[in-house]
Amino acid sequence: MMGEFYAPLSSVCGLGDYCYTPAKFIKRSLGLFYLGLATGKDMNEQKMLAIYEDAGALLTGHFILSSGRHSPRYLQSALVLMHPAHSEALGRELAASVSAEDVDVVVAPALGGLIIGHEVARALNKPLVFTERKEGEMSLRRGFSFEKGARVLVVEDVITTGGSVCECIAVVREHGGVPFQVLAVVDRAPDMTERFDVPHRTLLQLTVPSYAPDECPLCREDILPAVKPGSRHPA
Ligand code: ZN
Question: Which domains, and CATH codes, for the chain?
C-alpha cells in the first residue's frame, strides 16, 4: 500500500544527501547505521527510512542529543508526522495490522502518540482518547473514560524504554479498559525485550548508538564537530 504512495521518495537516500560531510565519514557513519538496523532488509523498512531521511527526521553526522550524549544518528519522528500525507499513510499501515472489530477505542500517550494515534483511530474508524502527564504522573483527563472491559489499542510514535507506553497501559487498566496491543512507528531499542506485557508491533526498528561525550568515537576521530540537531553551526 505504501509502495505506490511513496514511490517518488524512494530515491532520496542516496549519498547526495550527505554531501556536507567528508567522504570518509559518510562511509563510516552509514556503516555504523546499517549495522544498527535490527531487521532492516525488507522493502517497507527501506521505504520508511527514505521517508524519514527525506523529511530530515533521520540525520547522519555527529549529534549532541537532548540527554547530552553524542550519536552518529538523530531521529525526530515529529518531522515526519508533521506532514499529513505521511502521518495518514503511516497510520493506515499500522492500523492494517489489527482488525477493527477487535478494537473499541484507541489510546495514545501525549504528546508523542497524539498525531499517529489519531491517524490509526481514523483508519479504524474508532474513537481516540489520550493520557497525559499532570505533575509528572500519567493520567486520564478531559472527561475521557473506558467502558468496563473495553478493548483498547495503544499507539505511540517512538518506543525506546517504553516508559510512557507502560504508564499509559497502567492508566487504561485503572479505568477498566483492557489493553491488548501496542503499535508504534519506530522501535529504537528492538533488542530490549519484555518492555510490555501486551504484544507490540512497529513499522521501523532502529538501534541508534549513543555515547558519553568523553567516550565518543566521533569526538576522538575529530573529523566532524558535534552539533545540536536543528542548528546550522557547531555547538
Ligand atoms: Zn562526540
Answer: 88-205 (3.40.50.2020)
Distance (angstroms) between ligand 1 centre and the Cα of 210 equals: 9
One-letter amino acid of 205:
Q
Instruction: Report CA(178)–ligand 1 centroid distance (Å).
Output: 44
Q: What is the pLDDT of residues 142-156, one digit of tens each?
A: 999 999 999 999 999
d(CA 75, CA 223): 22
**Contact residues for 154 (Cβ-Cβ < 8 A; gap 6+):** 106, 107, 108, 109, 165, 168, 169, 172, 179, 181, 182, 183, 198
Q: From ligand 1's centre to the CA of 63, what distance in Å? A: 7
212 C-alpha vs ligand 1 centroid, how far in Å? 8
Please tell me the distance between residue 217's alpha carbon and the centre of ligand 1 in angstroms: 6
Separation between Cα atoms, residue 31 and residue 18, nearest integer Å: 14
Q: pLDDT tens digits, residue range 55-89?
A: 999 989 999 988 889 999 989 999 999 999 999 99
* DSSP reduced 3-state for 207: coil
Find the 71 Cα to ligand 1 centroid distance in Å. Answer: 7
Ligand 1 centroid from CA 224, angstroms: 9
Beta bridge partners of 186: 158, 204
